[in-house]
């Protein structure tokens, strides 16, 4: 583990992340202070942020990494373009890392292993150079897709075009090109980075485990609110093949709702769901285990202690 923690810094990633945060936080703040808030620009930035998070959640994560449903080519291209705008590498690379995370959770092979602490799981792993002894997991099913190969080849150009140039041009049309760049481009990226990273860090450290305690994943309502449903991470790690993360009808999972709505018009098909009895069994097992560890076991120990005391008294 120490070798992993002390790998050399990937200065390209480190400098880019630092620059984005400086421009997105300091630059946007100074601009708003000097020129005020343009509500049309804020609306555009919020819309671009929502589309980016949705593309990561519905595309990079649930569609490409886990194949929890199938998507019409037009929908796939949309997800690939806005997924690229997150500046989180290509869908191929992202999915390879994520599949390794699921198959090696909480181990030295886990790219964002939460056991190594908040910093590593949140961003440290991003700014470390890749380990040459641990190449990316093979994803032949994704490599066979022409659209994924196309996005992998051009993801930097797509990221710059959709993630920076487009918000700037929309800002220009609204009379505020710099505001479009700072809010729709840089500030958007800061928010998307932080909520995405939080799923790897905080949601493996804070929250509940209603389905399984076999790994560090947690369910977090706050995480779900910020990531369009990705915060229900304990369910997801227990049932990764389900297109839903918030399985209960009342849980906040806009990605699930949108994918389901698109399935009604043919843009998404073959939505995979975990059978309800399997979900109920998992919850029942964890509830029983929680009762055993928090109540039954101490009671049993107390009973044994009292029995032992009575026997000692009887022998005396």
Overall description:
The protein is mainly α and 316 residues long. It has 13 helices and two strands. A two-stranded antiparallel ribbon has the order 1-2. Helix 3 crosses helix 4, helix 3 runs parallel beside helix 9 and helix 8 crosses helix 9.
Q: Layout of SSEs?
A:
Elements: H1 2-5, H2 11-35, H3 39-65, E1 70-71, H4 73-84, H5 91-103, H6 118-124, H7 140-143, H8 146-173, H9 177-200, H10 221-227, H11 233-238, H12 254-263, E2 268-269, H13 276-315
Antiparallel strand pairs: 1-2
Helix pairs in contact: 2-9, 3-4, 3-5, 3-8, 3-9, 4-8, 8-9
Alpha-beta classification: mainly alpha
Helix residue percentage: 55-70%
Determine Rg (CA atoms, Å): 23 Å
Find the count of extended strands (DSSP E, 2+ residues): 2
* Biggest beta sheet attributes: 2 strands, antiparallel
Number of helices: 13
Q: What are the low-pLDDT stretches, counting only 5+ consecutive residues below 50?
A: none
- Outline, from the CA principal axes? globular
The first-to-last residue Cα distance is 55 Å
Strand order of the largest sheet: 1-2
- Quaternary structure: single chain
Estimated share of beta-strand residues? under 5%
* Mean pLDDT rating: 91
**SSE series:** HHHEHHHHHHHHHEH
């Amino acid at each position: 583990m120490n070798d992993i923690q002390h790998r050399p810094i990937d200065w390209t990633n480190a400098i880019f992340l630092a620059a984005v945060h400086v421009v997105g936080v300091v630059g946007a703040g100074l601009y708003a202070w000097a020129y005020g808030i343009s509500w049309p620009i804020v609306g555009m930035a919020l819309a671009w942020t929502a589309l980016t998070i949705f593309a990561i959640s519905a595309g990079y994560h649930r569609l490409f990494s886990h194949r929890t449903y199938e998507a019409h080519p037009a929908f796939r291209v949309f997800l690939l373009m806005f997924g690229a705008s997150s500046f989180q590498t290509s869908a191929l690379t992202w999915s390879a890392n994520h599949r390794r995370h699921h198959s090696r959770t909480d181990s030295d092979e886990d790219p964002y292993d939460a056991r190594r602490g908040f910093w590593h799981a949140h961003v440290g792993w991003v700014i470390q150079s890749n380990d040459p002894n641990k190449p990316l997991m093979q994803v032949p099913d994704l490599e066979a897709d022409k659209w994924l190969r196309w996005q992998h080849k051009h993801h930097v150009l797509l990221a710059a075009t959709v993630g920076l140039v487009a918000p700037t041009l929309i800002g220009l049309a609204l009379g505020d090109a710099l505001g479009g760049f700072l809010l729709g481009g840089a500030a958007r990226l800061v928010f998307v980075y932080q909520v995405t990273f939080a799923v790897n860090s905080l949601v493996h450290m804070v929250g509940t485990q209603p389905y399984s305690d076999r790994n560090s994943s947690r369910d977090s309502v706050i995480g779900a609110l910020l990531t369009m449903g990705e915060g229900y991470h304990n369910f997801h790690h227990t049932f990764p093949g389900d297109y839903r993360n918030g399985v209960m009808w009342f849980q906040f999972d806009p990605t699930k709702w949108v994918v389901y709505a698109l399935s009604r018009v043919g843009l998404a098909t073959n939505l995979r769901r975990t059978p309800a009895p399997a979900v109920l069994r998992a919850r029942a097992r964890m509830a029983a285990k929680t009762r055993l560890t928090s109540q039954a076991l101490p009671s049993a120990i107390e009973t044994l202690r009292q029995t032992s005391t009575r026997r000692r008294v009887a022998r005396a």
